[in-house]
Amino acid sequence: MSKAKPTTKSKPSPRAKSTAKARPQLPKAPTGIQGLDEITEGGLPKGRPTLVCGGAGCGKTLLAMEFLVRGATEFDEPGVFMAFEESAQDLTQNVASLGFDLNDLVARKKIVLDYVHIERSEIEESGEYDLEGLFIRLGSAIASIGAKRVVLDTIETLFAGLSNQTILRAELRRLFLWLKDKGVTAIITGERGDGTLTRQGLEEYVSDCVIVLDHRVTEQTSSRRLRVVKYRGSTHGSNEYPFLIDEDGISVLPITSLSLDHKASSERISSGVARLDAMLGGAGYYRGSSVLVSGTAGTGKSSLAAHFADAACRRGERVLYFAFEESPDQIMRNMRSIGIDLQQWIKKGLLQIQAHRPSSAGLEMHLVMMHKLIADFKPRVAILDPLSSYVIGDNQIEVKSMLMRLVDFLKTRQITGLFTNLAQGGSPVGQTEIAISSVIDTWLLLRDIDGGGECNRGLSILKSRGMAHSNQIREFLLTDHGVELRDVYVGPEGVLTGSARLTKEAENEAEQLVRNQDVELRQIELERKRTTLEAQIAVLRAEFAVQEIASLKIIGQEKAQKAQLAQGRVDMGISRKVDAKPNKRKGGSK
Amino acid sequence: MKMNSARSAQPKAKASQLEIVPSQYILKLYVAGQSPKSTNAIVNIKKICEENLQGRYELDVIDLYQQPQLAQGEQIIALPTLIRKLPPPLRRIIGDLSNTERVLVGLDIQSKP
Predict the structure, then answer these.
(1) Which of A16, A513, B18, B59 is the most buried (most CB within 10 A)?
(2) Which member of B35, B90, B95 has the closest CB to residue A122?
(3) How are beta strands A49-54 and A209-218 bridged, if at all?
(4) Concatenated DSSP letters for A550-586?
C-alpha cells in the first residue's frame, strides 16, 4: 500500500483510499459486500477462483452467497451456486432472512442453485473414473444463464463421498483450471483444517486469492474476523478485520487502517452547562474533539453526558448515546430528575439511545456495531457511557486499541465524542483504567471531596487541548434543573465544599457586614467633624468681621485726626507768617 | 444415446421351478462421449450383464455430453456412473467397471460359482 501513487484522475476521497494506481490494475469483480471491496481494493480477482476458508459457522456460505446475489442484482453478473452441503431449499430458506429472495432470482434466471448430493453408502467404486459429471453439470448450469460467477460451497465434501484421493486431487486441479478457462469468478469454500487452511489443502490449487474467516471466542464473547491471506497481483489490506452478520448481510469494517489525518475544526460547541463552557475558555468543547469525563461512582458523569446530549439536540444535531449500564428508560427517568427531558429528542428523532451489555459481544463486534450505527444514524455527537464497562478481566490493551480506533473514526467524521469512565476509588488521579488519555482532547475530572462529614462533588479540567481553560476546582451540584457549578471556598482551611462552604460563606458575609458598618461609622464621624469644623470657621469669621469693622473705624479716626493736625499746623504757620514756600517746605519737613 | 436395450420375458414355469422370482434389473450407465473410460465401461457392463443377468435386465447407456441436463437430476458427479434403478435400493457404481467383483457386489448380484 505504501507504494501507491495517487492517480491524477482519481478524485481525492476522504478515506485516504488513494491507493488506486496509475499502473494497470488486475481486473476485479466487486463483491458488493460492505467493506470487503475496500480491503481487496475493488473485489475478488475477476475470472479467477478465490478460496474462502474458515471453521464451522464462520460465515463462508453466507459470504459466498452474498457475493453471488449482489453480483446478480447489482453488477448484472448471473451466478451458479453449487452446494455440496445444503439442499437448494435449505439454502433458500437460510438466506431469506437476509432479504435474499433466491426463488425469485432463480425464476429470473439470475442464479442457478445446484445441490450436489453424495451418499457414500450408495456408491461403489470399480476402476478408473473422473469428475467429468461435475464438469458437465457445472458447464450446463453456467451455459444456461450465462453465468459470470460460480460458488462451490465446500467442494471438500467430495473427499468424504469418494475414496480415491489421487483421482480427486487431479480432478480438482483440473476443475480450477477449467473454471479459469471459462473466465468465471469463482469462490470455493473450504473447512479449516488442522494446521492448514483447508482440510484437503485446497489452497494448493486455488492460489490467486485466499480469504480466511474466523469466529473466535475470547472471554466468552465471540467475534468474527476476516483476513485476506493472499491476493496475487494486487495489494490488499492484510490485517484481520472484524465483520458482522446482520439483517443486511455481511459488513466488514476496515477499521484498523485509519490514519491520523483528520481535520481539526475550530468550531466550539456548548457542553450544556454554561459555567463549564466558561471554564473551557468561555466557549465549550471543540467540534470533533474527544471528551473524557472520568470520576468515581456517583459523581455525575452520566448527568454531564446528558447535558451535552441535551445541548446538542437543542442545536438540532443528532446524538447517538451508547449506554452500557442503564436501559434507555432508566436513563430518561434519571435525567428527568435533574430536569433534562430526553424523551422529546427521541420523539423528534434527534436522539438515539443504544443500550447493550458490553458482554453481549466481543470488543470488535461492539466496534463494528458502533460503526454501523454511526454510519446509519450520522450523528454529530456520540456518547459512550461508560467506557470502563468494556474492561472485563485482563483486556485493557484490546480495549485501548479499540477505543483508539473508535476515537479516530469519530474524528474523521467530525463527530464529537463524549466518553465517561468510572475511575476506581483510590487509583491515581489522571490515570484511567483504560489508558486512553493520549487520544483524549478534553478531560474532565469529577471527584468526591469529603470533609465536614459530607461528600461533595468537585469538577476540574485535567486537560483541554487548544484552549485556555480554567485551573479551578468547581463544586458540582446536581439540582432539579440540571448541573450547577459553584466556586469552592479556597482559604487557609483548604478547599471547602458543601455546607462547609455555605458556613464559610455565611461567616464571610457576617464579617463583611461588620466591616461595612465600621466603614459607615467612620464616615458619619468624619461628617460630624466636618460640620463642627465648619461651624467653628463660621464663628471665627464673624468675630473677624466685627474686629475688621472696629479696626477700620479706628483707622478712619486716626486718619481724620492726622489730617486735622496737619491743618492746624498750616493754620499756625499762616498765623506766624511763615516764609515763602521753600522755607515753608523745610519748616514743613521739620 | 441408447446403445443397447435388452429385455427378455421371464419364463414363468422356470421361475416357479427355482422358487425364487428373479428380480428385474434396470440399469443406467452414464458416460462422457467416447473417452477410453466410457468405452471400457460400456464393454465391461455388457459383459457382466450377459454373464450374470441374462434375460432379466434393462440397460440404458446415456452420454451426458448429449444430455447434460440429466446430470443434475441424477446427482452425477463422477463418470462413468452406473446406476441401479431397480431393484431398490438405488445403487451407484462409479468407474470403468473393470473390477467385476466390485460391480457384482455393488449391484448385489451373486456371481456364478
Answers:
(1) B59
(2) B90
(3) parallel
(4) HHHHHHHHHHHHHHHHHHHHHHHHHHHT--SHHHHHH
pLDDT on residue B18: 45
Q: Which residues of A touch B76 (CB under 8 A)?
A: 133, 136-137
Mention every residue, 6+ apart, whose C-beta is less than 8 A from residue B23: B56, B86, B87
C-alpha dihedral sign at A412, A416, A420, A421: positive
Contacts of A119 (CB under 8 A, 6+ apart): A161
Q: What is the structure's pLDDT at B111? A: 53
Model pLDDT for residues A109-153, shown as the tens digit of each residue? 999 999 988 888 888 888 888 899 899 999 999 999 999 999 998
The three grid cell numbers given for residue B55, joined into one nine-digit string: 434375460
Which residues of B are less than 8 Å from A136 in CB distance? 32, 64-65, 68, 71, 76, 79
SS (H, E, C) A428-497: CCCCCCCCCHHHCCEEEEEEEEEECCEEEEEEEEEEECCCCCCCCCEEEEEECCEEEEEECEEECCEEEC
A434 pLDDT band (50/70/90 cuts)? Answer: low
Plot region of A423 (φ>0 → left; ψ -120 to 50 → alpha; else → beta):
beta
Give dist(CA A148, CA A236) in Å, integer.
23
Cell of A37: 471491496
Residue A483 near residue A492 (C-beta atoms within 8 A): no
Own/partner pairs, A218-223, CB within 8 angstroms, 24+ separation: A218/A362, A218/A395, A219/A362, A219/A392, A219/A393, A219/A395, A220/A359, A221/A359, A221/A360, A221/A361, A221/A362, A221/A363, A221/A365, A222/A361, A222/A362, A222/A365, A223/A361, A223/A362, A223/A363, A223/A364, A223/A365
Above pLDDT 90, what percent of chain A? 30
Q: Find where cell 496475487 sits.
A: A232
| Total-model pTM | 0.66
Of the residues A124, A125, A142, the best mutation for testing chain B's interface (the one with the most B CB atoms within 10 Å of its CB) is: A124
Cross-chain Cβ contact B103/A126 below 8 Å: yes
Pseudo-torsion of CA A521, A523, A528, A530, nearest 10°?
160
pLDDT in the model for residue A160:
83
Strand A442-451 versus strand A221-231 pairing type? unpaired
A242-282: pLDDT as tens digits: 888 877 788 887 655 556 667 788 889 998 888 889 888 88
For residue A492, the tally of other CB atoms under 10 A from its CB is 4
Is the Cβ pair B64, A132 closer than 8 Å?
A: yes
**Per-residue pLDDT reduced to its tens digit, B3-54:** 444 444 444 444 444 444 456 888 999 998 888 889 999 999 998 888 888 8
Separation between Cα atoms, residue A196 and residue A156, nearest integer Å: 14
Of B75, B92, B105, the CB nearest to A116: B75
Sign of CA dihedral A82, A84, A90, A94: negative
Q: Is the ipTM of this complex over 0.85?
A: no
The CA-atom distances, in angstroms, between A179 and each of A47, A136, A192, A290, A319 are 8, 12, 23, 51, 50
> What is the grid cell recorded at A183?
473466465
Taking each helix axis as running N to C, give the angle between helix A132-145 and helix A165-182, from 0 to 180 degrees, rounded to the nearest 10: 20
A39's grid cell: 480491503
Q: Treating both helix axes as pointing N-terminal to C-terminal, what angle do A301-314 and A328-336 enclose, rounded to 10 degrees?
A: 90
Helix, strand or coil, per DSSP, at residue A80: strand
